[in-house]
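stage 2 :: seqdesign
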């Protein structure tokens, strides 16, 4: 009787990269903030052990669609250790992913809660929770090599979904998208097959960037981003990645 299949080389390399992300201490301000937040905790999570490190990407190593956010939330991913897990933004996003056929369940509470993604991978432009959700340009650029390496390892990825203007800017820089189309919900940018920026790597096999407003409470509670709007973007990403409808 044969055992479980061996992990693919790319999956092994992703695991190694994720270990590096978790151990990273490049940015003094971000390290201090993530660790202080993990020590102080929010009252609702006082009995929990916070992750308090760099947060790795999460999902299907064979994903055709990669979702890229801004950075971990202080009491969300910085607490749980998994992107968009344990906060209102994640509640909104994973419900949408489930409706659109990318997730096996609509909720995400903590790592190990049974959530699995299919054809999708979730990551962020910056891997540590930043004060006021605002990384500095230096912090953004220090973290960018992690995303570049990650996208190179996601060999089946064809479409990136930029969750917010910050992620969109980073993706366009990596992919050499010039001129950069204006960011707007549902907007699509074509990625050149070879980067037009000297020395800048292309986005692996990704040929399109689809824009979405970030699923922050500021957007979802005010109606700037609705469930229907999120679903339209995700279904469009499925179509552009040549995935069957959910």
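stage 2 :: out
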């Amino acid at each position: 009787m044969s055992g479980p299949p061996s992990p693919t080389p790319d999956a092994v390399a992703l695991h190694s990269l994720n270990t590096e992300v978790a151990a990273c201490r490049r940015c003094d301000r971000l390290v201090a903030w993530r660790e202080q937040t993990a020590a102080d905790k929010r009252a609702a999570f006082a009995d929990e052990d916070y992750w308090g490190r760099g947060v790795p990407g999460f999902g299907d190593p064979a994903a055709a669609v990669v979702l890229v956010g801004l950075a971990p939330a202080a009491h969300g991913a910085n607490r749980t250790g998994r992107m968009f897990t344990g906060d209102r933004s994640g509640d909104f996003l994973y419900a949408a992913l489930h409706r659109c056929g990318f997730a096996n369940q609509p909720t995400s509470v903590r790592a190990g809660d049974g959530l699995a993604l299919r054809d999708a991978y979730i990551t962020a432009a910056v891997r540590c929770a930043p004060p006021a959700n605002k990384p500095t340009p230096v912090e953004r650029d220090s973290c960018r090599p992690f995303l570049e390496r990650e996208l190179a390892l996601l060999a089946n990825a064809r479409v990136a979904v930029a969750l917010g203007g910050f992620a969109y800017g980073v993706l366009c820089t990596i992919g050499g998208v010039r001129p950069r189309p204006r960011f707007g919900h549902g907007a699509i940018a074509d990625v050149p097959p070879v980067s037009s920026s000297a020395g800048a790597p292309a986005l692996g096999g990704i040929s399109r960037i689809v824009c979405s407003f970030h699923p922050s409470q500021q957007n979802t509670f005010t109606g700037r981003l609705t469930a229907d709007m999120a679903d339209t973007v995700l279904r469009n990403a499925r179509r552009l990645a040549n995935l069957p409808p959910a």
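stage 3 :: structure notes
- The two ends are 34 Å apart (CA to CA).
- Strands lie at 58-59, 65-69, 120-124, 159-163, 188-190, 208-212.
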